[in-house]
Design brief:
The complex is a heterodimer of chains A (about 140) and B (about 300). With about 140 residues, chain A is α/β, with parallel strands linked by helices. Chain A has one domain: 2-Layer Sandwich (Transcription Regulator spoIIAA), CATH 3.30.750. Helices cover about 35% and strands about 20% of the residues of chain A. Chain A has a five-stranded mixed beta sheet. In chain A, strand 1 and strand 2 form a beta hairpin. In chain A, helix 1 packs parallel to helix 2. Chain A is globular, with a radius of gyration of 16 Å. The relative contact order of chain A is 0.16. Chain B has 13 helices and six strands. In chain B, strands 1-2-3-4-5 form a five-stranded mixed beta sheet, with helices on both faces. The chains are: A alpha/beta (about 140), B alpha/beta (about 300). Strand 6 of chain A pairs parallel with strand 6 of chain B, so a sheet runs across the interface.
């Protein structure tokens, strides 16, 4: 049983496992079917490797419609049932404005500025930290 | 057929008025120079006023000869539009309203009408009447042209200032590593809050800011619309992974928000910008040490 074959090449989104965290990087446009497939893949990956967090990096995504927004929310809810936290990282300003205008504020979703911040949020030990969390600094 | 004839007659009356204006140009210019409009604009020398009057009469004559008495965009008016614009601007500066300017332009008709009547004495009465109607129409058009020029100048000014306001009024300030703030001043409308939202979100990306502070100390009133704009900005910032703090809510505004029943429960609010910064620093684990209070180390 291999994975389903998609109509367009590159539609399959890789799900990488880094320590106890799954990293999913989305690029360009994501078609509805690919999004559904991703949702399924993530669920299976969490179950297979018992990870504690999922990071979805969407810094390369320029268009997020209401469907994709809902998919994110569903992935988060689904991951939570499997005891994993989901963080969406690197949303662009234009995308954020569009989602808000659509009324999709995704209240249950955790967000981060970029993938590194997201990894830090989920597992502070997983990322080599440039600064110690408590630091002295001057303006 | 009858229409054609009437048009032909009208045509000739317009041309007659045009020729009359050209012939009596000097006399009209001399009389106009004493009218309020020109007298108050050209206070320096009367010659200048006469010169300006002559140009306007010339333009009117050209318009009449071309039989475009009712046409605001007639070629003849284009030549004097600049000059009329300057005159209107200087009248406006001295505090004249548009009604007053319109009245002053209307006053220019009387001396010309008098001249025309004396000129046409003896010709058939129908002819005289027709010519004065044409003259009245022409002067009415001049009045419209003047007002239009004034309105356009005002509109240009407003457009320019609106652009300036949009640019000036929304600076995004970096307060600390990872903390940006927008001090909002003045009334927030949809266009402005859109600009604020965009520039704040862009700053969040470029400064890698985990905290964004919206300071509304300078916002005089908060109604449900403004509150909605604030909530949108906060939601968008949150989607990008930044936390948004609304600060500078004055007691009166807090009261209004409660009265309106707006739920800002999902938004972090602080009384002052300093409190908001303190919150952000605390959340990101930065510690500010007061050297005088701890007072121990040499440096």
């Amino acid at each position: 049983m291999t994975g389903p074959i998609h109509g367009s090449p590159g539609a399959h989104v890789p799900v990488l496992k880094l320590g106890g965290i799954l990293l999913v990087t989305l690029q360009g446009e994501l078609h509805d079917r690919a999004a559904e497939q991703l949702q399924q893949d993530i669920g299976e990956a969490i179950e297979a490797s018992s990870v504690t967090g999922v990071v979805i990096d969407i810094s390369g995504v320029e268009i997020v419609d209401s469907f994709l927004g809902r998919v994110f929310a569903e992935i988060a809810a689904q991951a939570k049932l499997l005891a994993a936290q989901t963080v969406v990282a690197g949303m662009r300003p234009a995308v954020a404005i569009t989602l808000v205008e659509l009324g999709l504020t995704l209240p249950g979703l955790r967000t981060a500025l970029d993938a590194q911040q997201a990894m830090l949020m989920l597992d502070p030990a997983s990322v080599p930290v440039p600064h110690s969390p408590v630091r002295r600094e001057s303006p | 057929m009858a229409d054609h004839e009437a048009a032909g007659e009208r045509n000739s009356s317009a041309q007659e008025v045009g020729e009359f204006l050209r012939r009596r140009r000097e006399q009209i210019a001399q009389r106009w120079a004493d009218e309020t409009l020109f007298r108050t604009v050209f206070t320096m020398s009367r010659d200048e006023a006469v010169e300006a009057c002559r140009a306007v009469v010339e333009a009117l004559a050209a318009v009449a000869v071309a039989d475009q008495v009712d046409n605001l965009g007639a070629a003849g008016f284009i030549a004097v539009r600049d000059q009329l614009g300057r005159m209107v601007a200087s009248r406006t500066r001295t505090g004249a309203g548009s009604t007053q300017i319109a009245d002053e332009v209307a006053a220019l008709r009387t001396p010309v009408a008098e001249l025309l009547r004396s000129e046409l004495e003896g010709s058939p009465s129908g002819r005289t009447e027709e010519c004065s109607v044409t003259l009245t129409a022409l002067m009415g058009t001049l009045r419209l042209v003047v007002l239009e020029t004034a309105l356009n100048a005002g509109q240009e000014l407003i457009d320019r200032q609106r652009l300036q306001l949009l640019e000036v009024a929304t600076p995004v300030i970096k307060l600390w590593d990872g903390v940006v703030a927008v001090p909002l001043i003045g009334t927030l409308d949809s266009a402005r809050s859109q600009v604020v939202m965009e520039s704040l979100l862009d700053a969040v990306v470029s400064q890698q800011a985990r905290f964004a502070i919206l300071d509304i100390t300078g916002v005089p009133t908060v109604d449900s619309l403004v509150a909605q704009h604030l909530m949108k900005t906060v939601a968008a910032a949150r989607l990008m992974g930044a936390e948004c703090i609304v600060s500078g809510i004055r007691p009166a505004i807090a009261q209004t928000i409660v009265h309106l029943g707006i739920d800002l429960g999902s938004v972090i609010t602080r009384a002052s910008l300093a409190d908001a910064l303190a919150y952000a620093l605390h959340e990101q684990g930065s510690v500010v040490v007061d050297r005088n209070r701890t007072g121990t180390s040499a440096r």
